[in-house]
Design brief:
The chain has about 600 residues and is of the alpha/beta class. Strands 3, 4, 5, 6, 7 and 8 form a six-stranded mixed sheet that branches. Strands 1-2 form a two-stranded antiparallel ribbon. The chain has helices at about 1-20, 25-45, 55-75, 85-95, 100-125, 155-170, 180-185, 195-200, 245-260, 265-270, 280-295, 300-315, 320-335, 345-355, 360-375, 380-390, 395-410, 415-425, 430-440, 450-455, 465-480, 480-490, 500-510, 515-525, 535-550, 555-570, 585-595, 600-605, and strands at about 75-80, 85, 140, 145, 175, 205-215, 215-225, 230-240. The protein contains 28 helices and eight strands.
Length: about 600
């Protein structure tokens, strides 16, 4: 056995020596380096030349298949000054070359490969929400569609067509689609497309117009490559209202083809789906969408909810309308608006109806998430629903925002941050989103420099200077930088009654121990409310803060009287515990109980 072992070892050693003598090692190393170089060229350069992905995959496959062939050829043949010869012949002629050319090939190839690798790895890394980040070729922004109808009240219909095309595109995972909020302030046909594309971080722009006359609709669309303002595709669609969905599907499909986006079977189906067969139901739905998109406040939300309710009354099988109704009702329920209509049961019924009609619909999962988050307070269940919704609507910035909010509540800060940043990438010019991330997320993590960097982008986006300075003041106050807070608030007119401004000024004065001045600011705001009407949520919070200022100023009796009034305003039913509600009112109720010295009730409310 020992002799056999030594004999076997000799054979193996001879085999490896033969591999070295026949230059197989050299060929293997050189092939690997050159192959990697070719793969880097294919993956980093081909996309910029708009070469299809299947060509890249073919190059990689051929390189992999060629490796064993190269080794076999290296074993069997030898390069000599007289040309390629079989190894046995070359051995006889004793013409083995000692050329070191292969070393230079390996070194140069490795250097180029590494350069391309790091170029692709770092130069293309996106900076979420930053308009200067590199623009993916498969990216698009849909600008507002122009209303060419004689009846200008049909503007909601043009908005609706644009929104439906945008939604269908947003469901394609291989595309980057900018949110409507970031595009809504642009003109329908702007002249500075390259600059707009840079601001939005996209390579392509879709423009369009809608003309509606009776039941006839004409839709014009054109897809533009922003870098050189070239028209890639354009078409005009003349349809009846009953066939308007085919336009939305055809436009989305054509854009996907032009941008070489890969569509899954599910995405193909989603693009082709008709949400309803009833034009009247669809018209009511579009009216609701227009109200919700273009107006704010509870009255607008109630009007949108009424439009969605009308849509499902006309067509009870209209799943998207049921989902929209559930979502709007969940918000109104949370803030206690029209409580007899926007009940927990009504919200759940609408959400479940959408899910039963189309269980694969992204909006149905959004409705489930909204119910679980805002109504049943099942945060983990909401996270699961948002995950399902995001799979079906990968470009849905609103899903990502709400996802991040729920994850923050659960303490999943890293996951929340990833969703916040993705939302900002899809909605880069939404100043409300930037402010929320800065104030509600980054400042809580005490990452103040990053928060300031986000706020510094807002002046370009928002004409509301008061709102911007109030946000900066809030951030400075969180840092304890009282002088900077005062400077920001001083830039706002002294008589301003904007909620955030009044709150910021009152808090700053309280921190400076100027309690009477803080009370004066609060009282001016509260006294501006229409007489006889109940206080709104901001004034209820300010009332509680005024009570604390009296307490800190050494006036316990006055403080108790105002705490008692605040208790009645915040919780008029006089329940020991206030159910979850918008504006964080349960939190302020707990603080009010604490101010009154009712420790047990304060803890009971705080632990809800």
């Amino acid at each position: 056995p020992e002799a056999l072992r030594r004999k076997t070892k000799v054979k193996i050693d001879n085999f490896f020596a033969e591999l070295k003598r026949r230059n197989v090692y050299k060929v293997a190393v050189a092939y690997a380096v050159v192959g990697w170089l070719l793969i880097q060229v294919a993956t980093q350069v081909f996309p910029f030349l708009e070469i299809p992905n299947w060509v890249i995959r073919l190059v990689i496959a051929l390189i992999a298949l060629g490796f064993p062939i190269a080794l076999i050829v290296a074993w069997a043949f030898e390069s000599t000054p007289e040309g390629i010869k079989r190894t046995e012949v070359a051995d006889t002629a004793q013409q083995h070359s000692k050329s070191r050319t292969w070393i230079y090939v390996v070194v140069i190839g490795a250097a180029i490969s590494l350069g391309l690798f790091f170029l692709g790895r770092y130069s293309a890394r996106p900076t979420s929400g930053n308009a200067s980040s590199p623009m993916a070729e498969k990216s698009i922004a849909v600008l507002p569609f122009e209303n060419l109808s004689d009846d200008k009240s049909n503007a909601y219909f043009a908005d609706g067509i644009q929104d439906e095309i945008l939604t269908r595109l947003s469901k394609i995972a291989d595309l980057k689609v900018i949110s409507r909020i970031s595009t809504q302030n642009y003109k329908s046909t702007p002249t500075n497309l390259p600059e707009i594309a840079r601001q939005l971080g996209v390579a392509h722009i879709l423009e369009g117009s809608v003309q509606k006359s009776g039941n006839a609709v004409r839709v014009n669309v054109q897809l533009i490559k922003a870098a050189n303002d070239s028209h890639l595709w354009a078409d005009t669609f003349d349809r009846q209202l009953t066939d308007i969905f085919s336009v939305e599907s055809e436009v989305a499909r054509a854009i996907a083809d032009q941008l070489r986006a890969k569509l899954t079977g599910q995405e193909e189906q989603v693009i082709a789906d008709k949400p309803t067969q009833n034009p009247a139901a669809y018209d009511a739905y579009l009216r609701g969408r227009s109200i919700e998109r273009n107006q704010s406040g509870f009255d607008a939300a109630k009007a949108a909810g009424a439009a969605y309710a009308e849509a499902v009354r006309i067509d009870p099988s209209f799943a998207v309308a049921w989902a929209s109704l559930a979502i709007i009702r969940s918000r109104l329920y949370l803030y206690g608006v029209d409580a007899t209509t926007n009940t927990a049961a009504a919200t759940r019924e609408a959400a479940d109806k959408a899910m039963s009609l189309q269980p694969e619909l992204a909006e149905a999962w959004m409705a489930q998430a909204a119910y679980r988050y805002r109504v049943s307070r099942d945060f983990r269940g909401a996270v699961q629903a948002y995950e399902e919704a995001s799979k079906r609507l990968p470009n849905g910035s609103q899903i990502l925002v709400e996802f991040a909010v729920v994850e923050t509540r659960l303490g999943s800060w890293d996951k929340a941050e990833a969703h916040w940043r993705k939302a900002m990438e899809l909605d880069p010019r939404n100043f409300g989103l930037l402010s929320t991330v800065a104030i509600e997320f980054l400042s809580r993590l005490r990452r103040f420099s990053e928060a300031h960097a986000l706020l510094d982008r807002i002046p370009e986006l928002s004409p509301d200077d008061q709102w911007f300075h109030a946000a900066r003041a809030d951030l400075f106050l969180s840092e304890g930088r009282l002088d900077e807070t005062a400077k920001e608030l001083a830039r706002i007119p002294a008589g301003s009654l904007v909620d955030a401004v009044v709150s910021g000024r009152a808090q700053l004065l309280a921190w400076q121990r100027q309690f009477d001045s803080a009370i004066a600011v609060i009282e001016r705001k509260i006294n501006s409310a229409p007489p006889g009407e109940p206080l709104d949520e901001w004034n209820k919070i300010l009332l509680m803060e005024a009570a604390y200022c009296h307490e800190w100023a050494g006036r316990p009796e006055q403080a108790k009287a105002i705490f008692t009034r605040a208790l009645h305003e915040i919780n008029p039913s006089n329940n020991a515990v206030l159910a979850p509600k918008g504006f964080g009112m349960p939190v302020y109720l707990a603080l009010t109980y604490a101010g009154l010295g009712e420790k047990d009730k304060a803890f009971q409310q705080a632990h809800l």
